[in-house]
Structures are given as structure tokens and as C-alpha cells.
Amino acid sequence: MVIAFVAGATGYTGREVVAALAARGAAAVAHVRPESSRLPEWRERFAALGARVDATAWQPDAMAATLAALRPTHVFALLGTTRARAAAAVRAGGPAADYEAVDYGLSVLLLRAAAACGSRPRFVYLSSLGAGGTGGNAYIRARNRVEAELRASGLPFLIVRPSFITGDDREESRPGERVGAAALDWGTRLLGALGARRLRDRFRPRTGRELAASIVRLALEGREGVVEAEQL
To answer: Is 206 helix (H, G, I), strand (E, B) or coil?
Structure first.
């Protein structure tokens, strides 16, 4: 039986991954921060999908104990932040929520807990287009470091590097992103019409539901290694 722990489950792609897993009959466990003001709401939403919620604190020992008890077959790391969220956390006087703390720090905390849990789960990491090289901005550098630690972990893994992820069903308001996605979508359609299908597929924007369906399918089929945007 597939037992899947999903970190980042309340995000745009994460909630769709939980839904796709539950639809396939997997025992899906959606992680929600224990301090989330929306925890009761998420419990109801995920229960309606046939999944359950876990609210383990983001502490190494706590997360390790949760995964050791759960013994998952798959662990999905779909974590990420934005500069706006990081700035808001600073203004609120809360803990750091930048790329170093979230995209790298929490992903690696989860990876180490998965490696220690004893069930040797497949670790599914949502990375980004442009990762895997050297240099890059802070966002890409954080993802490069996670990928490097994942390769060295000894766990079976799947790294997915999508392009733009957006859609009208996104709860968080990002008008600039939607304008950019619309322009990119028009550009990729033009590339396709001109015969540049690989470039079209590489840069085509995807909705959270589209991306989640591909991630879950590949993970449950046993795909390993790196999957680039054009392979989704």
C-alpha cells in the first residue's frame, strides 16, 4: 500500500498532490503547520478528499519520530516561499521564512527525517527549472543544495523541475505572475506553431492540478532521477 507524507500540502501544488494521491487510493497524510490559523479548515478540506492531516512541528526530532511511526513509502517535499512572504515574516517579528530557512532548511530537515525513518521512502522533491547547475539567484542556489543532499542521501528519489506554475484557481492573489504566465503561454504556443515543440513544452506554464497529476503519476510509477519540464 502507498503511504504518502506530503509536506507543503497547503500550497497551490501541494493540495492538488494530496487530492491526486487520495484519488489513486493512497493513504495520503497532508502536513499542516501546527501554528496555522487555518488548521481546522485544512482538516475538513483534506478529510473530504479522503486524506488525513498531520501537524507535527518543524523540529528535527519531532519530524523524525512522525515519519518513523508512519513508515511512508513516499515523501513529497513541495515546500517553498516567496520574497513577499519572507518580508512579511520579518515585519511580524516571526522566525525567518526566506529561501534559506524554508526552501532549503525545511526541505533538508524533512529529507534527513525520511532517511532515518527506516522504511526507505521514495523522496519526491519539487525543484525548479534552471536548478542543477552552478550559481544562480538565492532561490536556485537553495534548490541546488537540496538536490545535492538528496543525491547523497541514499534514498530513491524523484526530482521534478517545472517551469511556471500558475492558474485562475490559485487562492493567493498574484496578478503580476498571471500576466507573466499569460504572456509566456502565448509565447510557447507560438513556439509550438513554429515547430519548436521541445522549447514549447519546457517553458509552458502549468496549473497546480496539471503539475500534481504528473508528479503523482511519475512517483507511483517508480520513476527515479530528474524530470525536466519538457518531460512532464
So the answer is: strand
Q: What's residue 83's pLDDT?
A: 56
CA pair distance 34, 56, nearest whole angstrom? 6
Rounded Cα–Cα distance for residues 124 and 113 (Å): 14
Closest Cα to residue 105, out of 131, 84, 120, 86? 86
On whether the CB atoms of residues 32 and 47 are closer than 8 A, the answer is no
Contacts of 58 (CB under 8 A, 6+ apart): 33, 106, 109
- In eight-state DSSP terms, residue 80 is -
- 49-79 pLDDT tens trace: 999 999 999 999 999 999 999 999 999 999 9
Q: How far is CA 147 from CA 80, 126, 181, 189, in A?
A: 14, 10, 26, 31
| Spatial contact of 13 and 169, defined as CB atoms under 8 Å apart | no
Task: Tell me which of 87 and 134 has the higher pLDDT.
Answer: 134
The answer to whether the CB of 50 falls within 8 A of the CB of 22 is yes
- Write out pLDDT tens, residues 145-163: 999 999 999 999 999 999 8
